[in-house]
# Entry
Amino acid sequence: MTAVPLDPPRRLVEFTLDGEPARVAEGATILDACRAAGKDIPTLCQGETLEPKNACRACVVEVEGARTLAPACSRKAEPGMTVSTDTERARHSRKIVLELLASATDLSTTPRAAEWIKEYGAKPDRFGADAATMNEQPKIDNDLYVRDYDKCILCYKCVDACGEQWQNSFAISVAGRGFDARISTEHDAPLTDSACVYCGNCIEVCPTGALSFKSEFDMREAGTWDEDRQTETTTVCAYCGVGCNLTLHVQDNEIVKVSSPLDNPVTHGNLCIKGRFGYQHVGGGNTAGA
Amino acid sequence: MRQRDRGKQSKEYPRLTHPLVRDEKGGPLRRATWEEALEKATEGFRRIKAEHGPDAFGMFSCARATNEMNYVAQKFTRVIMGTHNVDSCNRTCHAPSVAGLSAAFGSGGGTSSYEEVEATDLIVMWGSNARFAHPIFFQHVLRGIRNGARMYAVDPRRTSTAEWAESWLGLNVGTDIPLAHAIGREIIHAGLANHAFIERATSGFEDYKAEVEPWTLSAAEKVTGVPAEAIRDLAHAYATAERAQLCWTLGITEHHNGTDNVRALINLSLLTGHVGRYGAGLQPLRGQNNVQGGGDMGAIPDRLPGFQNVLDPETREKFEAAWGVTLEPRHGRNLTAMFEAMESRELRTVYCIGENPAQSEADTGQAVERMQMLEHLVVQDIFLTKTAELADVVLPATAAWCETDGTTTNSERRVQRVRKAVNPPGEAREDIDIICDIAARLGHEWKFADSEAVWDELRSVSPNHYGMTYDRLTEHQGIQWPCPSTEKLEPTYMHGRLWETDPDKRGMPAPFGIVKHDPPVDLTDEEYPLRLTTGRRLDSYNTGVQSGSYASPLRRGEYVELCPEDAELYGVSPDEEVRVTSRRGSVVAPVWIDPGLRPGLAFMTMHFPDEVDTNQLTIESNCPIAGTAEFKASAIRIEKLPVAAAVRS
# Structure
């Protein structure tokens, strides 16, 4: 008797995407099909390694016959459906979403946000300067992480990564409701008094830079963070025998950040505290004399 | 247990940036040029080989370096020095797993893959706190649990792994064989053994059945401390699961009879047919990034590259033809035997690459004394470790995982590419480059253009690696061995042959291991009433040389951890410094209270040897088959310090 059934082979689904025939594996989303067809749909709360949360609505598309717009990240492709990604209605909706997010939160470190705001003609400042919901200082209560909730769009990806989808540490959750909703540790305690194990998997999935590594935060503050001068090299972690793949982000011969490929069969993009932060012994600044 | 002392940092080790030599025994190390240091290193090897023969040389190869480096290091040992005396720290951890698995299946690797843990029905974590020691493997376990699998934890401590278990079997340290035998007996008596599999694919079942017969549930309860009902429950769950994974770590192997422990677990898989199928198998979780690969590359005294047997004449002939030398038809000395040979002066020179035995061996005092008896010690490392401080020549090397190119092999036999991301500091040079330089000075000009050239030479002599070109390793994000073909990939699990109906395809049956209970050597008594076991914490690693340098908010230094009952019994409170004494040594450490421990059981790590040298307490009592020491079981007592002397020694 088996408790855990093995997956049966998957079939292909055919449908119409922006007037063209599209074929994807059964279970794939509209977003998967869009990306396979080279279409650029904005996404924020969607994560390759996480289940869709449908929080940000940046990826909405029009499905023929449906009353409402559908989030491409979670809506599965169905045989015979007709999907349009670039209609006036979908574009208008994305524009409003970007205006609301960019007026309430600081998207200055969100990759591609500025580009999308321009592309969709969004005008976030039309809600006035007092639309920002947080207005607080970044939380720095340890030497590894910084939490800057002015930049948080409440997409819940960090909560899912910390919780049952990957890490199962449950150090953070959503506290408060409505405008008071925010990501918090238990009783809003400092991270050092929480269940946090400093794996950095929440930072890995954060789409806006609200969560960042202290090393990156400090370099940004000092104005020395420069991704154009960084190389990314994937190697294997030097700690235990599990063999996690590490992508080392190197600037001026210094490791400044460590991530892991999301499609890696060993890690699925996740690491532990040693793999994520235990690289400092390599640094040449502190060297032996005789 | 939330109060964490954030000030606790382990000693920081600076990187070595230039060679060092010692002009006379007892003198200081001084800076030297590469030319001078390499000449001195070479001269010592040459002289001692001429005076005392090839077997006076020993190579400590590095389980942290690449496969390519390990291949070159063992080739240096066998071809240039002419001995099989090559080994690595695999001896201190998982050598029993390799010995046990190869005795049963003819191959020393784990039989399943991580992804199979997500698709299994039952997971047994035996002597493994993977939640801390192998966190990303444990994510696969958690996925399995979320998918509906049941997990059982077998461990003397109620660890953070056990928190996720359906049932925790808290056995007494060193009673794994009685527990395994009782599970086996229960499976047989309940009529749950897979007789079709046993008949076709195994041998020695009748002897096994007789061996486990005395271990009734109640007999096992008496010895192991685990309630009979819990043993019965695990036996039935394991035997009736469609697919089951049996995973273990050092709780099984770091005993004086570690190989027997491994055999006792393998027996359970043979009894139930939980091996050789997708989702059903055995997984030893390896402790170092390339401890699997080091052995696969032949950096062990009894195996040539590709884990091929030194004693097999055809294998030797193949390597003799490839390397143009004659190979001795016998095993070399393993790490443990090499240390003993230092004392008898049969071993006079050691080339130690990236290992720190002065702090990692059990009974470190003895290990240092023995290394001081060497005539000539060359240490190649990225840090000036305690071992390097004993050396005559210190050669600064690169950090393999980010300053060189190559491959390493993980716990699921996956060979993965390691790539150079940063330049090494100062004059530090790559391991292979340094070894080849010394080889050239000894008259062997090896021309390896790059790590891929080394790998391709290895592929040409190792059928299990033949199909793994660098291009394919990149394309597939690593490939698991065996991979004999450049065209296709093998299944994620091994030993599917055991399920073949054709006896020829089935091959050698897997023998049951007939092993007996043998309690820990270091007995507890009135004088040493507590059982000390050792292990890792989440944020730290081994002797702390590598993990001590980052600012972990979790790090809290060394403690002797006790259960609340024992703390009360000895009248000690949290953070109070106490003296911890075994029959071999004594250290001072503060007290930590852990309700996950049971009365009579204490726990320490080996992460902070510069503050508290835990391995002064552990016993150098070795597994006769694999040579691994009994780190997991020493007898200690704890004593309150006199009030005036209550400061750190």
